[in-house]
Amino acid sequence: MSDPTLTRSSVDGVTLLRDENVPCGVTLAFTERTGGVSEGGFSSLNLGDACGDDPGHVLENRRRALAALGCGDLVDELVNPKQVHGDRVVVIDAGGEVAAAARAEAREGADAVVCTVADVPVLLCYADCVPVILVAPGGFAVVHSGWRGTIARISGKAARILVDVAGSSTREVSAYVGPHVGAADYEVSQELLDRFVAEFGDGVRGGGRCLDLGFAVRAALEDAGVPSRSIVDCGISTVRATDRFYSYRASGGVCGRHGAIACMRSAGDVTAR
Predict the structure, then answer these.
(1) Residues paired with residue 177 on neighbouring β-strands, in sequence order
(2) CA of 103: how far to CAs of 37, 114, 139, in Å?
(3) CB 150 within 8 A of CB 234
(4) What domain range is 61 assigned to?
(5) Can you tell me the distance from the alpha carbon of 77 to that of 75, in angstroms, rounded to the nearest whole number?
(6) pLDDT tens across 2-31, in order?
(7) Which of 163, 233, 234, 236 counts the most CB atoms within 10 A of its CB?
(8) pLDDT tens digits for 99-152?
(9) How would residue 267 be classed by pLDDT, with cut points 50, 70 and 90?
(10) Which long-range contacts (CB under 8 A, 24 or more apart) does 45-49 make?
(11) DSSP structure class, residue 260
(12) Is the pLDDT of residue 46 over 60?
């Protein structure tokens, strides 16, 4: 498997950061905020259904995002957990009733979904927290890493669960870190910064009381066995790129959510659009 890459592209007005190599048959992307139908602070491709936007607009935006990834036929199969800023991981390792039960479990609360079943798209939503997509032979994971999940090493936890379920190794995992609040833009309390330093070392210091969540996520992945060369970080701070992404901090708390989406397509359906 080649080293992971992220390339910006647009499909029918929907702008994506994606790996066009479709690693292990997994189509994946981080969405930007253009190409949707939402209005005002949610303009325009808001994928979050818990931030106050018109539900009809959100459904149409999700349809457009999935279509841009070549998964427009799988809207009804979408898994979108209720994100609770923790480290709970839901596993989908079979179709039918098992997948339905996992979907229901995810809606009760989870911040990562591991999937080894073809044609089941997974979406998690963000507006400053760290989006992570993991790919390994036989499956993938999508992770929402807020500060609580980050200090609990949810990305490393998801990587270990993924390879256990898929029967692969963390040395075979490719990791994609999407747009999130950058170190220079994320000032926290001294107490919280000290907790992160104790967990991850001085590399999480972003200057002053600023915290580098991306460093902590990458450290957790490497400690789980993911090679550093297999981790790609887009390097974009949502706070400084509000024309492209949503930022809870920059907007004062009222905004939409961009997404991290992945789906392992059946054989013959793995070509990127």
Answers:
(1) 132, 233
(2) 26, 11, 17
(3) no
(4) 7-180+227-264
(5) 5
(6) 899 999 999 999 999 999 999 999 999 999
(7) 163
(8) 999 999 999 999 999 999 999 999 999 999 999 999 999 999 999 999 999 999
(9) confident
(10) 45/14, 45/256, 45/258, 46/246, 46/256, 46/257, 47/123, 47/125, 47/256, 47/257, 47/258, 47/259, 48/125, 48/127, 48/256, 48/257, 48/259, 49/80
(11) E
(12) yes
Q: Which helix (DSSP H) or strand (DSSP E) does residue 143 occupy?
A: strand 139-145
Phi, psi values for residue 18, rounded to 5°: -145, 160
Averaged confidence pLDDT in the chain: 96
Tens digits of residue pLDDT in 56-88 = 999 999 999 999 999 999 999 999 999 999 999
Q: Which amino acid, residue 241?
A: A
In a domain, 188, yes or no: no
Can you tell me the distance from the alpha carbon of 179 to that of 195, in angstroms, rounded to the nearest whole number? 23
Q: Does some domain include residue 209?
A: no
The domain tally of the chain equals: 1
Which one has a higher pLDDT value, 266 or 161?
A: 161
- In contact, 19 and 6? CB cutoff 8 Å: yes
For residue 124, the domain's CATH number is 3.60.140.10
Contact criterion met (CB below 8 Å) for 206 and 181: no
Q: Give a yes or no: residue 89 inside a domain.
A: yes
- Counts of helices then strands in the chain (DSSP H, E): 7, 11
Q: Is residue 126 part of a domain?
A: yes
Distance CA 178, CA 182 (A): 11
The two beta strands, 258-264 and 26-31, are antiparallel
β-bridge mates for residue 175, sequence order: 134, 231
